[in-house]
């Protein structure tokens, strides 16, 4: 981690921790109000106000047809991902699963095409499943760590075979994790615009893609608002489910790894195939104009993603450590709203405020999702830290002493890891940034998507591979930090 | 420093956790709080520590109210049930946490930490070890050293021995007693284990449903509990044969039908011999009655409890328990006579056996 990056992370987390002792209800209420206004109310209000203006009708039948098609695809992908997740969860450890989850959807979509698949449902399914199956496996593995071994032993002792034991004991235990995974994967599939646009080749529609076209191609805020309303209706119960699942994940840290099953390694190989397919074209095609174009976008993308990641990690750590658990659904709501919804809402809002697209707007758009991710990670990592705070207070540590001697040493490695996760997500995002980065794309991922649709055969796989390897680099950096 | 609790009341979501609890605890005394789960013991401890705020009432130390002091400024430290050791700090740094906050530094800090670790039986090899690399007993010792390091006036202990196995628990119980006595420290110790409470306490407070049910010297409360609930919390009771009172199983003696009763086992089998030194000689010399009460029955079962034997005797369709110091000379199905001192029968108004 560069010294400046670390110093900035340190200063941000430390200052926030020192400033916000626990508990301090009035200050937290102000924080929640600011969050609700900035992350939720302003973009929603902008979209609603734009939709209220006179314009073309929504064309409800077409919208319902897209919704049904999108739901069908999401349901199919979710079912497949959940079925494949169990053996993968038994075979691969959590850090490796997280690595695959963090690979940018755009890189997976370009990788699926690089495998020689033609654009369409198959390519979309492979690109989605390459990330969705590891995500479901990650959630499932957390639950598998607390599988009730004594109940399984008791069932076996009473004569239940493997299938009966699974149905009677293991399935009821795993059901919350399956439910959480289904919610996450369903939301990702419904809201996806990037994979559908690149790997779908116009043959596959999702609600996220419909939203993108409503705003960017058709300039139809009413339809955009209608689609966003569908997403909001799904997001509210999903945020609640996410918060519940997160608490369960936090409780599973003390468990033991499940017995390994090698069959899952074959599924991991399938998930790795799209990225592996990028290697040959990436190294064999000569450098061209596309490379120069993307190279120019790299510094601003790195700076924007880095700054938003540091800020998000700091806020996420503070809320994960100290915010009351009942606030989790509100803090996780941006995670339940697809990036495309945020991008569309902020673009429409910015247009009304006279604020042009660019790095600033992309920063504001990406931040709530990154904060939600960081909050989720910190909540799971700091589960049970309240008793340490009680112990520190009991031993005489005031707010500043607690921040210095307890929270900071506990929070900074987790904060740094969360910043890396948020950074990897931001740098690979093309879902929200497609709306906010402006014509030509001011971020690397959006520029890459534009070049991909234009058919650049050299730069696209090369840079997509680079995006795909960002999580690996982040993981290596995290491992280095851990050793230190 | 005398710790005074005055009319403490606390409720959670409409459920009363503590109801008007008031008690004076003398300086340097060892007080145990007993009660079933959910009886308000831990709530009381957390209120004294400042980790919870009472709805009503007051906590005073030497007459000075602590209510407006945050937890970090109260002269009390807690030994938590799960120890709450800081996972990112080694043993020495865990112990040094409170002294550092008090401004102790350098050689003085090192010496204090080493002395405390030695005091609780942890040698220098533990200094850099993290809590995760220590056993349950070692963690408990470390937590005790950490709590003592800030030189509290009162030590609050929240079921500190609950997670340990029996032999370890006995050893650490003795350590706890020795260390706190040596320092003249006032202790408020929450437990649900009667053996632990009777062994450690100078004074016993028994809680039920958030209310203080009984308060007094452990031996006195054991011998004359004010209610059946208190009697049961402090040890097992068995119905008085043919009567409406209750007896401790060690007060129900056995003998063959044609012989006089065995010598009274109550003194020898009083829970844990080591508490005998805490009891006055007067309480030990209860004279045996010349005419003990007697009843005939049949032995139902005989079980060895290690240092004692338990015999189930069926009399008139009811099962009665007798505990004796050695192996009984009787077998299931055999006729026996049980005898007891009528003076030891426990009677509670409205709670017949």
UniProtKB/TrEMBL annotation, chain B:
The keyword Transport applies. InterPro entries: AAA+_ATPase, ABC_SmlMolc_Importer, ABC_transporter-like_ATP-bd, ABC_transporter-like_CS, Mo/tungstate-bd_C_term_dom, P-loop_NTPase, Transp-assoc_OB_typ2. GO terms for molecular function: ATP binding. The keyword Nucleotide-binding applies. Coiled coil: none annotated. PROSITE patterns: ABC_TRANSPORTER_1, ABC_TRANSPORTER_2. Signal peptide: none annotated. Residues 3-234 form the ABC transporter domain. This is ABC transporter ATP-binding protein. It comes from Nannocystis punicea.
